[in-house]
Design a protein that fits this description.
By secondary structure, the protein is of the alpha/beta class. The chain contains 23 helices and 21 strands. The strands form 4 sheets. Strands 11-12-10-13-14-9-15 form a 7-stranded parallel β-sheet, sandwiched between helices. A 6-stranded parallel β-sheet has the order 16-21-20-17-19-18, with helices on both faces. Strand 11, helix 13 and strand 12 form a beta-alpha-beta unit. It binds adenosine-5'-diphosphate and magnesium ion.
């Protein structure tokens, strides 16, 4: 933030031509309070008056058109709420239709038939004729003869502002006015000059000037590039400094040695060879836990990449150093499954492991509480039950949180408050996040990626089928079941209409039964309205292979492991998001047999829905799917990053500016490595800038 006595901190009403009334409007309508805010109200495009389209040349592949013509007609059609405004603009080549559905009164009052306008907007076609809906319009002023290209900035404005003579054009006037009062030093440089030079970036003042008033498209690009780089660079630098600070200030337990438990398991019990990704992550954890700082690591690994074994090996490391560990899972089913899996793996080793969930019997629960307290229990697997105050550890050293996004930050923090020196934390998520998003949202954490699946996995064959093909889909399930395989059929659970989804599920269940009337087919069902005990029984029977088909809502989504299941049918696929579809699909393809995922839909699927289905059919790679998800939905909606302050970017795009982000990260790392306190002369401008900005953004830890 700019210091109060700085010219940029001047309230906007003091700018020549603004005054109190218009000042108030700028604040209310556009959030422009100060000179600085006006400076940061960037134009959303520039008019290049040399680039005028002929109306006759407008065609379907054109996204936007800019034309000059006379408004030969304007009038309204329809009544009341259906009322809209239509216009016709004519140039020497043809007629362009214009239409307005909103703000009609203002348009009607302000556009004058017979006047020549410069018109810009998104090209559409209506009854085969070119049309622009809600065009930007301004009275055409021809460029002066012989003038070189001048790009005029166009700013967003609102009806209320326009009514007070603050149209986009008038805002341009104010911005120009502001620049006439500013000196180069008023827009402080914040990037060290050696870096400016090395990367050939425009100085800050110039970049600000040229993003508003470029004299050529290249000029504008240069300004935009500089400001985008700055945006990433400042964010990366801050994240890296926070991370460094956290490492330095957090005291952590030291796992000095790799001992008997780890070695015995590794050499005699490990049922397979670790993948390189698993080895790498294990090494990262080993390094972290040896430093004396608390580890706070996010492990992203696609479904089936083998995160569990990495967790177990880390827990063995903790045990070797005399510490207890726990694994927290989001559901009873998952906790139970982890418990079963881990007890199996640990068989023959002198380590104690227990399961603690909401349905653990009182007597057992008391025993577990006591054993945790006296230290005789090494590992505990559980649900939220672990967070209760009564659960106390003798010396908790390692915490694994599985499927991270299901737990709130505050909830998880309860766990590490259970020890004087906080335990090391490994948060595991099977929801891959695109690299750019991870870098910006989790840049202050340590994170590991497992982007490799264990060998021998067969890719899951994914197809899209119409509802009408249901009978043949059921027939396909029958052939798989005949081979001894099992199948899932999943129904969406829509929160707003839980009742309806429940009824859909029941209907679906009856329908499935009608396809498999022979009693040799056993069908089970799991949904959120069942008691945990019933859910568990049904789940267990499917896990043990006692039932052939599992009809379920998404309660089985996360982490359930039934390697014998080879078919996943997803009903009403269009209702699921990409990451959820990917999670669901990950329930099959866990064994050595070929597996199939069938995406069912009705006839009507939205464009986005079709896009999602296409991606699912094309790839099994969770990271690719995550990239696509980011592209389709934008960063604000991606799981787990919603609350992150890291995403309030103004200019950059996490989809289109990847390379710039990588560059900014590398440059920031170089600075932090050489001069973490930013005391070198060349880094002082940066230090000043960051100090001024302090308090503006809050970067939060996710775990
Ligand atoms: P996720 O990362 O989805 O939690 P899991 O840890 O459940 O994956 O592992 C999925 C399956 O892969 C398990 O059956 C596990 O035993 C197996 N697995 C894990 N690592 C390897 C490996 N390196 N080689 C072969 N199989 C492995
Ligand atoms: Mg898992």
């Amino acid at each position: 933030m700019t210091p109060v006595n700085h010219i940029l901190a001047t309230p906007i009403e003091y700018l020549k031509g603004v005054g109190p009334l218009r000042g108030d409007l700028l604040k209310k309508e556009l959030g422009i309070y100060t000179f600085e805010d006006l400076l940061n109200h960037f134009p959303h495009r520039h008019i290049d008056k040399t680039k005028i389209n002929q109306i006759a040349d407008i065609h379907g592949d054109m996204e936007f058109a800019q034309v000059v013509g006379k408004l030969v007609y304007i009038g309204s059609v329809g009544e009341n709420r259906a009322r809209r405004l239509v216009g016709q603009l004519q140039d020497s080549s043809g007629v362009l239709e214009l239409a307005w559905f909103q703000g009609i009164n203002w348009v009607e009052k302000n556009l004058v038939q017979g006047t020549t306008y410069l018109v810009y907007g998104r090209v559409g076609f209506f009854n085969g004729k070119p049309q622009i809906v809600h065009p930007e319009m301004e009275v055409f002023v021809p460029a002066q003869a012989g003038a070189k290209t001048v790009l005029e900035p166009v700013y967003s404005s609102t009806e209320k502002l326009k009514a007070r003579s603050l149209s986009g054009r008038q805002i341009a006037g104010l911005t120009k006015q502001l620049f006439s009062q500013l000196k180069e030093k008023d827009i402080d440089e914040n990037i060290p000059s050696n870096i400016l030079q090395q990367l050939q970036l425009l100085p800050r003042f110039q970049a600000y000037y040229k993003i508003h008033f470029p004299s050529s498209p290249e000029d504008f690009e240069g300004a935009l590039h500089r400001l985008k780089f700055e945006e990433f660079f400042v964010a990366q630098l801050r994240l890296q400094l926070v991370r460094l600070q956290r490492h330095k200030s957090s005291r952590g337990l030291v796992f000095e040695k790799v001992g008997n438990y780890f070695n015995t398991f590794y050499n005699h019990h490990l049922p397979f060879q670790l993948t390189n990704a698993q080895k790498r992550v294990l090494k990262e954890i080993r390094n972290d836990t040896a430093t004396g700082h608390q580890m706070n690591r996010l492990l992203q690994g696609d479904v089936g990449s083998g995160k569990t074994i990495v967790a177990l090996l880390s827990m063995l490391l903790a045990a070797d150093n005399g510490f207890q560990s726990c694994i927290m899972a989001p559901t009873e089913v998952l906790a139970q499954q982890h418990y079963n899996g881990l007890s199996g793996l640990l068989e023959g080793m002198s380590l104690k492991i227990e399961l603690l969930t909401g349905s653990t019997k009182t007597k057992k629960r008391k025993e577990i509480h006591a054993a945790l307290l006296d230290g005789s229990l090494h590992f505990v697997v559980g649900t939220h039950a672990l967070l209760e105050d009564i659960v106390q550890f003798n010396n908790l050293g390692f915490v694994v949180v599985d499927e991270q996004h299901r737990f709130g930050v505050a909830q998880r923090a309860k766990l590490w408050q259970k020890a004087a020196i906080p335990p090391h934390i490994l948060v595991m998520t099977a929801t891959p996040i695109p690299r750019t998003l991870a870098m910006t949202a989790y840049g202050d954490l340590d994170y590991s990626v497992m982007d490799e699946l264990p060998p021998g996995r067969q890719p899951i064959v994914t197809v899209h089928r119409n509802e009408k093909a249901r009978a043949s889909v059921m027939e396909f399930i029958r052939t798989e079941v005949a081979k001894g395989r099992q199948a899932y059929i999943i129904y969406p659970l829509i929160e707003e209409s839980e009742k309806m989804s429940y009824e859909d599920l029941m209907q679906g269940y009856e329908q499935v039964k009608s396809f498999f009337p022979d009693p040799k087919y056993v069908i089970s069902m799991v949904h959120g309205r069942q008691t945990p005990a019933v859910k568990q029984t049904n789940m267990d029977r499917f896990v043990k292979g006692e039932t052939n088909i599992m009809v379920s809502t998404t309660v089985i989504e996360v982490g359930v492991n039934v390697p014998n299941a080879s078919v996943m049918v997803i009903e009403s696929t269009e209702k699921f998001g990409l990451s959820q579809l990917h999670q669901l699909r990950g329930r099959v393809g866990r064994g050595s047999e070929k597996s199939f995922c069938i995406l069912l839909t009705g006839d009507k699927v939205s464009r986005e829905g079709r896009e999602r289905i296409k991606i699912m059919c094309e790839t099994n790679d969770g990271f690719k799917i995550a990239e696509k998800d980011l592209e389709l939905r934008g960063p604000g909606d991606i799981e787990g990053t919603r609350q992150s302050g890291a995403l309030n970017f103004k200019l950059v795009s996490l989809v289109n500016d990847k390379d710039l982000l990588e560059q900014a990260k590398t440059v920031a790392a170089g600075i932090v490595e050489k001069d973490e306190n930013l005391n070198m002369a060349e880094n002082l401008p940066l230090k000043n800038f960051l100090q001024k900005q302090k308090g503006k953004t809050r970067w939060s830890k996710i775990s």
